[in-house]
Amino acid sequence: MPEQPAWEIKRTIYTRAEEDFNTSLGLPPEDRNLQQMLKRGVVIVDKVPGPTSHEVVAWVKKLMELDHVGHGGTLDPKVTGVLPVTLEDSSKCVQALLDAGKQYVTIMRTHEDVEEKRLVPILKEFEAEIFQRPPLRSAVSRRLRTRRIYKIEYLEGGGRNWLFKVDCQSGTYIRKLCADVGEVLGCGADMHELRRTRSGPFLESQAVTLYDIADAMDQYHEGDEAALKKLVHPVEEALSLLPHIWIRDSAVEALCTGAQLAVPGILRLESGIEPKGLIAIMSQRNEAVALMKAEMNTDTIVKEEHGIAAIPERVIMLRGTYPKSW
Fold first, then answer.
1. Is 60 exceeded by the pLDDT of residue 107?
2. One of 31, 46, 67, 76 is an active-site residue; which one?
3. Is residue 36 within 8 Å of residue 295, measured between CB atoms?
4. Structural domains in the chain, sorted by start
5. Annotated catalytic residue 215
């Protein structure tokens, strides 16, 4: 389990081979037209209190007139903040978002007045791998499990109300964290309010409201695509925290048909690749090709000349985007 959130990890790129790429093949994400972006894009919604995550996603689907959407991590009805919504083919990469770390800002209310000098050291004690059992109302089974709290930053408070920020592993229940802090204090505590300020690579500053989406769609129907294009992020951004491998043009179509990735097909790769870990496979033009599970670590891939480096998890790129080479 990592000791820090993925957005703080600095990766090194290693080059195994050099190869010129055909400029007539593929399309860099920044050059896609609106229809291509809607097929392979992500919208970052600022969820309001009240509706469920599924209801918000259904509204996005209806507003944007799409056939299929997904989301990168459920928020309870009362919780607000960052909810990445994957559009059409981008839903194939939702696992990368579900596994990404999260950041929350919460107001904890203690059942008695507490002194700041007593509370802050106790919060710091929870910066570790902790045990949690999901609450009664949860979307997962209530089995005991471990989750990593990367960092707790105390912001302000007094008396019974306390504001702090939490960087944590996906699937951490902040409500349960507040209850556990209350137990250590000896007076009890509850989560009063919660807002997600980060989901993997996506920040609160990037989030838009449903009204923004509706307004952008109105402008689109009037012939102006600019506002809608500004709201949609390339699917590649959703994969930005995963270790990357860049492959030869000749290997792309094979992977799109479900082939395993052999070492000779790799041009460049990042540090941090570990066996069984999820990795992003990219074309030379930085297009997402597939999500794969690594069979080797970074050092082994750099040194070896043969063998299977990764096996397919989800293919993202459409077949036929690159020509067959076999």
1. yes
2. 76
3. no
4. 6-29+242-315 (2.30.130.10), 32-98+202-236 (3.30.2350.10), 102-199 (3.30.70.3190)
5. no
